[in-house]
Amino acid sequence: MSTEPQAFAVVVDSWFDGERRHDAPATFLIRDGRIEDIAAGDLGADLARRRVAVERGGFLMPGLVDAHVHLFLDGAPTDSKLRSEHLKQPLEQLTEAARASARQSLACGITLVRDAGDRHGINNRIREEAADPRNGFSRVRSSGLGVKRAKRYGTFMAMDVSDADSIRESVTKLAQDNDEIKLLLTGIIDFDAGAVTDEPQFTLEEARLVVETAKACGRRVLAHCSGEKGLAIAARAGIGSIEHGFFMDRETLALMRDNQVAWTPTFCPVHFQWAHPEAVGWSPQTVGNLRRILDDHARHLQLAQEMGVTLLLGTDAGSMGVRHGHAVFEEIERYLEVGLNLEAVLQAATSSVRRHFGFDLPRLARGGLFDGLLLAGSPFADSANLRRPLAVWAARSGEEVT
Ligand SMILES: [Zn+2]
Known about the structure:
binds zinc ion; 21% strand; Urease, subunit C, domain 1; TIM Barrel; 13 helices; single chain; 402 residues; alpha/beta
C-alpha cells in the first residue's frame, strides 16, 4: 500500500459551488478526500508534470441529494398487486432491494439520500453499509422507524404511539439509532375527494412533545404532512422539515419562514399518478383533481421561494412510479416548470439539504470534504446535462455539527 497521500485534480470549464455558479475554468486539487485548493484556470498540464492524475470535464457541482426516499421500496413497478407483494418479501430480499436503490442513486449522481422511514430499519443497515465505498451506495441519512397513531396511515414505515409517556419513551429510544425522527402527522390525500379528509394524527401539543423530546436527544423531526389542519400544526410545532405539504397556504409559509421550518414538496408521486392515471384506474374527474392539486402546489412552491422558506428537493422515491436516482431529475423539472431558476433549484438539491442536516461545509469549498459530480457539459446550457455524469465522488465521513 502506498504511503503517498492520495491526490488528484479535476479541471472543468465552469462549476457550481452549491450556492453560486462560476462561469470560468477552474482546477480542483483533491488530497485524501478533501479539497486542498480551488484555483482559477486550467492547471492540468502543470499538475500532470508533477504526476498528479487529472480528470477533465465540462462542469463540476456538489453531488445531488434526494431529501426524501424509501430505499426498501422499489418505485419501478406500477402494478399495485406487485407493489403489495414486494412488501411481503422476506427481510433479506427487501434489504437487497434497498441496496439496489442506493447503488442506482449513486450511479445517477446522488451522493446522499435521506431515508424517510421503513418498518424494518433496513435504512439504518444500509446507512452502515454505505460507509464502505466499495459497496457503491449513496451515503444515507436515516430516520429509521417513524412514529404514528394506532390504526392510522404509515404502517410500512412507523410504530404506534399513544399518550404523552409513550411519545417520550418511543422518541427517546428511536433517537438512539436514527438521524432524524419521522412523524406521521397526517394521513394521505384522498384523490377522489381532492382533499385530505381525515383529522391530523396528533394535536399541536403532542407534535410539540415529539419535537421537544427529539431535540433533547439532539435530533430534528421530519413530518409527513398534507392538508391545512396538519400544516398549521407542523408550522407551529417547530418541526425541522415538512414533507409533501400539499394544500399549502400563505399563512403557513410565513410561519415556516419565521420558525425555520424547511419544506420538501415531493411532486413526483402525485405527478406520476396524474401522468399515468391508468396505473391506478383514476376517473377523469380524479385526474382533474390531481392537476388542480399539482398546480396549487406549484404556486405555493413559487411563493415559498419568494418568501424565503428553506426548500429541500426530495422525490419520495420508492413510491409508485418514482424510481430511485432518476426521480431527482424529474423533481428538478417540476421545480423549473414552476419558474424557479436553475441556480435556486440546484441549491435545493445540494447545499440547502446539507445545511439543513447540519453539515458545517455544505458546499464545494477549500478545506471541505470532496463530494462532487462531474458532468460533460453545464446544466445551465442544457439541464439534460445533469443526466450525464462522467464521475461521482461521494464523501463518506461526517463533518456534521450536532
Ligand atoms: Zn415518503
